[in-house]
Amino acid sequence: METSIVARRRGRPPKELAGFSETRDTLLRAGVAALTEKGFSATGIDEILRSVNVPKGSFYHYFGSKESFGAELIDIYAAYFARKLDRILTDPTRTPLERLRDFTADAEAGMKRYQFRRGCLVGNLGQEMNALPQTYRKKLRDVFDDWQARTERCLLEARETGQIPANKNCKALAEFFWIGWEGAVLRAKLDGGPKPLRVFADGFFSVLTS
Question: How far apart are CA 122 and CA 141, in angstroms?
C-alpha cells in the first residue's frame, strides 16, 4: 500500500501522520531496495527519504545514524532471505536437488522482475567492505555462514538419498555454491541478463553429480 505524506516543516514528525513504526518500516523497505540496486556508499539518505516522501531532516528521528540504519537493513534482509531458503530448501514435495534448482530459478525470476538492476544486498555490501563501517564485516560473514549452513543441510539430504555421490563434501560444496553464486549475481547485474546465473548453476550441478 502506498503511503502519501504531505510536506511539512522540518523537525520531529507527528506520530499521528502515518504512525512512527509505519514510517520507520517504509524507510527500511526503501533502504533495502536501494542497497540491492546501488550499494551503501552510493546511496544517500536524502535519496531514500525522497523516494518515500518523508521530509528531509526526519531521518534521525527514526534511526540514530546511517551506520545503525545499514545494520538494521542487513538484519532485515538476512531474516527475509532465511525464510526464503527455508521455504524452498526444505520443501518436502521436492527432492533436494530439485529444491536447489528451484532456488536458482526463483532468484533469476526475482532479478528479472527488476530488469536485473537489483542483486543481493549482502553481496553488494561485501563488494564495498573497505568503505563501510567495520562493524558490518562480522554481520555479513554471519549471514553467509547461515546461508551456507542451510544449503549444506539440503546437500546432506541429497547425499543421504543417493542423489549425489557419498564422497561429496557437503560443507565445502555449500561454501563453493555461495562464493560462485554471488559472483554470478554480480555478473548478471553487469550483463543485464540471466546467462551468468544459468552458467554457474549448470556448472555447479555438474560438479554435484559427477
Answer: 9
Q: Between 42 and 28, where is the model more confident?
A: 28
Question: pLDDT tens digits for 152-192?
Answer: 999 999 999 999 999 999 999 999 999 999 999 999 999 99
The closest of 119, 101, 87 to 202, measured between CA atoms, is 101
Q: Identify the DSSP state of 14.
A: P
**Contact criterion met (CB below 8 Å) for 186 and 119:** yes
Calpha distance 153→184 (Å, rounded): 22
pTM summary value = 0.84
Q: Name the CATH superfamily for 66-209.
A: Tetracycline Repressor, domain 2 (1.10.357.10)
Q: What are the structural domain ranges in the chain?
A: 66-209
Q: Is 129 helix (H, G, I), strand (E, B) or coil?
A: helix
171, 93 contact by CB (below 8 A): no
